[in-house]
Design goal:
Order of helices and strands: HEHEEHE
Number of helices: 3
Radius of gyration: 13 Å
Strand content: 25-35%
Distance between the termini: 31 Å
Oligomer: single chain
Number of strands: 4
Helix content: 25-40%
Strand order of the largest sheet: 1-3-2-4
Shape: globular
């Protein structure tokens, strides 16, 4: 398994220092709770797009679409399996 380290801009890293990590999603109910608690903006078709990472342990973490992946992961010292954006319907 290949893990990816943060290699991005140091200004972004400084801006997200102390930001909360993403929300772990292990079930559809977790995803519903995430949407209910964060009230993200919806796309024109009613779907929701969020930032995500899959951490070293294989956990899916999601955050607001406009957040940085490094913040969702929990900081620059955290390596991830993958990162991107995820669109879903609730």
């Amino acid at each position: 398994m290949h893990l990816h380290a943060y290699v991005g801009n140091r200004a972004i890293l400084a801006r997200v220092a102390g930001a909360p990590s993403g929300t772990p999603i292990a079930s559809p109910a977790d995803l519903v709770r995430f949407v209910q608690s964060t009230r993200p903006e919806t796309n024109s078709d009613g779907s929701v797009t969020c930032t995500y990472v899959v951490d070293e342990a294989g956990r899916l973490l999601v955050a607001d679409r406009h957040s940085e992946h490094v913040a969702c992961a929990g900081g620059a010292e955290r390596r991830v399996r993958t990162a991107g954006e995820l669109t879903f319907e609730v």
